[in-house]
Amino acid sequence: MQKHQWREQNGDETRFWRANYHGGRWSLYTRMKEDDDWNCLDPPSMEDWEALRDVLWRKYQRGRCSWNLIAKIDKILGRNDEERQ
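RE: above sequence
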C-alpha cells in the first residue's frame, strides 16, 4: 500500500488530505484540522483527483513517486499523452 498525505491552508482553516493506493484502487480521505475522524470521499470529485495529481507530480519531480501512479490518475481524469505535463 502507498500512502500520500498533504495539507491545504485556506485562510485560518487547515484541511488534511490522505490518498491510499492499494490493490489497484485509490481511496481519498479528508478532514479539517479540528476534526478527529477522516471522511472518505466516495466518489472523489474531479477537483479532488486534480489535487492528488498535483501532489504526485511534485513528488515525481523529486524522485519520490513513480510515473505509473501519475498515469493512472491521468486515465481517471481522461487525459491523453499530449495533455500531460
